[in-house]
Structure formats: structure tokens, C-alpha cells
Design brief:
The chain has about 230 residues and is α/β, with parallel strands linked by helices. About 35% of the residues lie in helices and about 25% in strands. It contains seven helices and ten strands. The strands form two sheets. A six-stranded mixed beta sheet has the order 6-7-8-3-9-10. It has a four-stranded antiparallel beta sheet with strand order 2-1-4-5, with helices on one face.
Length: about 230
């Protein structure tokens, strides 16, 4: 995923529209964005302004209506749908405001799910899953299902799941937004630690001013365009 000396993530002229009845909402307007390898960038802005949409485009969860996105040496908009699914699973880690853990599986099984989808050996998936859960201080929660975990513990499982495939790019969408202040600050610290330890390039959409201030750069999304905050 190395693209030489240029930016690791590069977006040019991104436009995204949503149709609603007779109206057409222009969410992103000719957005340009460059992110260096190893950089942690915060995206701030009012609710509904398009922060989630931007992260979804950068991670290949959705497609732009026009423009270009490169992550490393991969042109996302040129990928077929199956290739995009494989790209997301192998190279991008996602952490959302709501953990989206599978309720019928325990913590270890939830974390190893991306490796199972990639059809990697089960013993390797189990080993990596337990290593990451240990790293996020959940050694005694291996066999616990999501309904047996606190909100902060569920988010730590989600962080471990996001990292199990050893992605180069981490995208976090309001990761502390559903947590109380103390728990949110603890998760904020964990994200900073994981970013450094795993050599990630990270983009975090957040309303948390402390989390934003700890990033290398803060950008504001307003009226469909990005500006330095």
C-alpha cells in the first residue's frame, strides 16, 4: 500500500449527492484532501454536515458521484464491488459510534470475524484476536457476549476488531460519541496509543474537542467543503 513520497490518502474533487423525493442534497462539494502516512487527522463540524459520508467514501463503504480517491497505490473508484469489499477488509479498520458487534458471538469471535471473512487460518485469527483483546485490557472478557459488556468495553472490542487485519488506514466515526466523558476519554487515549503502536494513518470524525486537539491536524467540514479548523 506504499505510494512513494506522496500523500498516503489523496482525494480530489469529491462530490456526493443524496436524493430525497423531489430534492437533491449536495453533501460534499469538490472536496480535496491529502493525508500523510502516519498522520492522525480530525474532521469536525456540525451534525449532519457530511463527516460520516466523507469517511465512508475514504474507506470504500460508499462511492462518490464524482472525483477520485487514492489510498496508497490503490484507486478506489476504479475497483469493482468485490475488489472494494476485499480492499476494505484487508486495508481499512473502521470504528463507529455504535460498536456494531454481533450479539450472538463472544468478544474473541467478534474480533476475529474480519479474518474469518478473509478465510485466514482459524488458529491465526484466534491468536491475533486474543492478543488484541489483551492489549485493550479485556483479557477477562474473552468469552463475554456484547450484552455482558459495558459500553466502553464494547468499544474496546470494536477497536480490536478494527485492527485485527493489521490495516494501514483507521477510520473512526464519532468513536466516543455514545460514551460518558470518563469512558470516552479512556477510549480516546486508547485510540492515540493504537495509532502510534500500529503505525496507522487515521482519520477521526469527532465532536470531542480533546480528541480533536490531540490529532496532528484538525479540519472543519462546513457547507460541503473542508477548511483548516
Amino acid at each position: 500500500m506504499n505510494n512513494g513520497s506522496g500523500p498516503f490518502v489523496s482525494a480530489r474533487g469529491l462530490n456526493k449527492f443524496y436524493e430525497g423525493g423531489s430534492s437533491r442534497l449536495h453533501v460534499l462539494r469538490d472536496v480535496d484532501l491529502d493525508i500523510r502516512s502516519g498522520e492522525m487527522v480530525a474532521i469536525v463540524g456540525a451534525s449532519g454536515v457530511g463527516k460520516s459520508t466523507l469517511l465512508h467514501l475514504l474507506g470504500g463503504l460508499d462511492r462518490a458521484d464524482s472525483g477520485s480517491i487514492r489510498v496508497g497505490d490503490t484507486d478506489l473508484l476504479s475497483l469493482t464491488d468485490p475488489a472494494l469489499v476485499e480492499f476494505r477488509n484487508r486495508h481499512v479498520g473502521f470504528v463507529f459510534q455504535f460498536h456494531h458487534l454481533l450479539p450472538e458471538f463472544d468478544a474473541v469471535e467478534n474480533v476475529e470475524m474480519p479474518m474469518r471473512i478473509a478465510r485466514l487460518p482459524l488458529d491465526e485469527a484466534r491468536r491475533r484476536s486474543k492478543e488484541l483483546l489483551t492489549r485493550v485490557a479485556l483479557t477477562d472478557r474473552f468469552a463475554h457476549r456484547p450484552n455482558m459488556l459495558s459500553g466502553g468495553e464494547q468499544q474496546r472490542v470494536a477497536v480490536a476488531r478494527a485492527l485485527v487485519m493489521r490495516p494501514a488506514l483507521l477510520l473512526a466515526d464519532e468513536p466516543t460519541g455514545n460514551l460518558d466523558e470518563v469512558t470516552g476519554d479512556a477510549l480516546h487515549g486508547l485510540l492515540l496509543e493504537m495509532h502510534a503502536e500500529h503505525g496507522l494513518t487515521s482519520v477521526i470524525a469527532t465532536h470531542n474537542p480533546r480528541l480533536a486537539a490531540a490529532c496532528d491536524r484538525v479540519l472543519r467540514l462546513e457547507r460541503g467543503q473542508l477548511h483548516p479548523a
